[in-house]
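The pair is quoted verbatim below.
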Amino acid sequence: MITAIVMVDAEVDKIPEVADAIAGVKSVHRVYSVTGDVDLIAIVTVPEHEDLATVIPDHIAKVEGVKEIKTYLAFQEFSRADLEAAFDIGLD
């Protein structure tokens, strides 16, 4: 699976509606409202790189109220919970 982190700058008075619309896009797994330089962060997961070309520019970027997006592709995922589970073999 390919994971993309999409930073969304939205019209301030439409942030809740933009977040809801983006959350409804297929392949969008989570949308967070955040502080900082952007208004929303969407986590997108697709099976193939080519699928990003449909999800991000054709759906997320065209949501009414989206002003600008920046997309980052994930190379690897690190999670302390995953690492602990991998090394927990049940020995006491």
The chain has a mean pLDDT of 91.
